Structure formats: C-alpha cells, structure tokens
Amino acid sequence: MRLSFAISLSPTKFSAISSDNWKKSLTLMKKLGFAGVELGIRDPLAVDSTDLQLTLRKNDLQLVAIGTGQAYVDEGLSLSDPNPGIRKKAVSRMKKQVDLAAQFKCYVIIGLIRGTLAGAAAERKRRINSLAGKMQELSAYAKRKKVKLLIEPLNRYETNIMNTAAETVAFIKRHKLDNCYLLLDTFHMNIEEKDLFKTVSLFGSRVGHIHIADSNRLYPGAGHLDFIKIMKAIKKTGYKGYLSGEYQPLPDAQTAMKKYINYMRGV
C-alpha cells in the first residue's frame, strides 16, 4: 500500500482539506516521500491539465483520485437537489470531472456532491430514485471513458444518503452500478459503523480507495483510533491501493502532512 495526501487546487469552504499553494504542497510531498496525491477540484474547466501533468511528473507523484465535494460546499450543486436545473448542472460538472480524470487515469469520488434529503417520505423516495438515475448515467459515462467512480459513505452530520458501507454497497447492487466502487474513510466509519474492523473485512473486496483520518478528523495518532488494528484488517483484504490522508490541516498543512507520513510509516 502506498501513501497519498488530499489537497485542494483552490481555496474552499471545505475544512477537511488543505488549500495552501498546491504546487508548494506537491514539492513538499515529494520531499517527504509520498507516492500519490488526491486533488479536490471544484471546476475541472478551470484546471490547466498540461501544467498539472508537468507538475505531477516533476514531483514524481501519481494523481490518485479527484474529490468533487467542493461543487456542493462552495456552489450548492448536488445530484439529489429538488431543483432539476441544479441536478442537471451537477451531472454536467461530474462528467467534466470524469473527462479530466480520464487524462490522468484516476478515480472520481462521489461524496458530498450527492447532497442530502429533506421532506416527507414520498419526496425523499422520489429524490433517491432520481439520484439513482443520475448515478446510472454517470456510471455509464465514466465506464466509456475508462474511469472508475468511488462512492464514499459519509457520516449523518454531513448527509443522510448512504452513511454506512452496507447501505452504499446495497445501493450499488440495487441500481446495477457496475462501474462504482467503495471509498472507506476511517473518520466517517468511526461514527457510523458498529464494528469498523468487521466492515473492512466484509466489504474490503469492493474497496477502490481509502481515506485515513483519526476519530477527531485530525492526523492519525491525534485521536483514539487503533490504526495498527485497522491496517491489519485492510491488509487481510488484499487491498493494494493508496491510503490517502484527508483531515483538517491542523495545526498547519505542512505539520499535518509530516505527522501523517511519519505516523503511517511507523504503523
């Protein structure tokens, strides 16, 4: 397993990610010995892909995944919004993310961009069905582009759609999303999973990517999660992908990055 770190290409309201100068961050990541980077991107059309490719190559880093939640946090776009115009814009934005990911052969994450549900039971059911339709459209589009999608279970304080790994896998199966895989995040799992280690064992074969953060959404070692036990559970599944640090960049982004790689190497 290799280590990566999540940063943002631009300033964002999303607090669990560093939005410092991204080129300086990549230089530091190279110095520290990271193998990959996960990039939070609000609008892929604003990205100079040639410049990004050259900077990644210069720092010998692989772009592992594209995070898409900033479109929801900063612009209010979501795939389950009651407004069909907003849903349409969200789908269009996600397709542009897939187009960018195809250039770098990396994953696209569907986390906060799926939105949250409100209203009576009938309305919530209608919107879930609408979301499923949008996900099927995106899954098929991404498959044509040879890009895999990752659905990340998020805790109840951020969304009420797919909070656990079991709910997410059931959604994927029910709607035949054969190009969608699971993204496990230790912070969200600590809140939502009854048994974090059993969840890893049960669904590890469906995992495409993993986020690492401690119980308090700080760097590993700053909270109470047992990462030695977590890593043993992950290793037993045969997972060989990246472990991507995604947490609040405190006390500052550079320190948080150093704490992460030093701690995980020790583990």
Helix fraction bin: 40-55%
Mean pLDDT: 95
Can you tell me the CATH class?
A: Alpha Beta
Sequence stretches where pLDDT stays below 50 over 5 or more residues: none
Q: Bin the strand percentage.
A: 15-25%
Which sheet architecture does the biggest sheet show?
A: 8 strands, parallel, barrel
CATH topology: TIM Barrel
> Judging by the overall fold, what is the CATH architecture?
Alpha-Beta Barrel
Tell me the count of domains: 1
How would you classify the helix and strand content by structural class? alpha/beta
Shape: globular
- The topology string of helices and strands comes to EHEHEHHEHEHEHHEHEH
The tally of beta strands, per DSSP, is 8
Distance between the termini: 12 Å
Characterise the protein shown here.
The protein is α/β, with parallel strands linked by helices. It has a single domain, classed as Divalent-metal-dependent TIM barrel enzymes (TIM Barrel). The chain has helices spanning 22-32, 49-58, 70-75, 84-104, 121-144, 165-174, 186-192, 196-203, 227-237, 253-266; strands at 2-8, 36-40, 62-67, 107-110, 149-151, 180-185, 207-212, 242-245. An eight-stranded parallel beta barrel has the order 1-2-3-4-5-6-7-8, surrounded by five helices. It starts with a strand and ends with a helix.
Q: What is shown here, in short?
A:
The chain has about 270 residues and is an alpha/beta fold. Helices cover about 45% and strands about 15% of the residues.
